[in-house]
Amino acid sequence: MRLYTGLVHYPVYNKNREKITSAVTNLDLHDLSRISRTYGIKRFFVITPLTDQQEFVTELINHWKSGFGARYNVDRKEAIEVLEISASIEEAVDKIIEIEGERPVTIVTCASMVKEAISFNMAKEIIESNRVVLLLFGTAWGLHNDAIENADFVLKAIEGKNSYNHLPVRAAAGIIIDRLVGEYR
User: Fold this and answer.
1) Which of 7, 25, 30, 53 supports an S-S bond with 48, CB 3.0-4.6 Å?
2) Around 139, how many Cα atoms within 13 Å sit in the side-chain half-sphere?
3) Contacts of 134 (CB under 8 A, 6+ apart)
């Protein structure tokens, strides 16, 4: 499986539908690294153009990979091994091309119902076809249209049991990744 994930902090929307850069959160980094490691994802990119946020991520990575955290919790160290910083979606794509020798298929997630969205089964087939895939998740109030329009595919939204639809990104990522690469018997 040649699956990569990215947590996009720019370009995303705020609640007023304005294009913003959202803040990186410690919990997202830890939880999405653990999810990525559990499901065999090759790299989990934290995508932010803000240098102070990149510095925060670098400090976290260093703490868990070579600092006190590496000795304190080896399971966390192993999870953080998949975490990498990227200043933009394009930079993450370039890093994947460098690793894989080919451009990844980009699949973005969206909490809104999009007419052209692909099903989980279709996304699963793309992943299982051994194509390189970059699966992108948005922070704040979701990925900006710029990111959506530049993607190869938009994944169908998760549907709950009622009209409320505002999952935390960590929960949405866990559900989506499990649906796409989890094992069912």
Assistant:
1) 53
2) 19
3) 4, 5, 6, 45, 92, 93, 96, 104, 105, 106, 107
Mean pLDDT of 69-89: 92
Neighbours of 104 (CB within 10 A): 22
Q: How far apart are CA 158 and CA 115, in angstroms?
A: 14
pTM score: 0.95
What is the CATH classification number for the domain harbouring 69? 3.40.1280.10
* Residues spanned by the domain of 50: 3-181
Give the chain's domain count: 1
Confidence of residue 114 (pLDDT cuts 50, 70, 90): confident
Reduce the DSSP state of residue 126 to 3 states and report it: helix
How many angstroms separate the CA atoms of 12 and 19, rounded?
A: 6
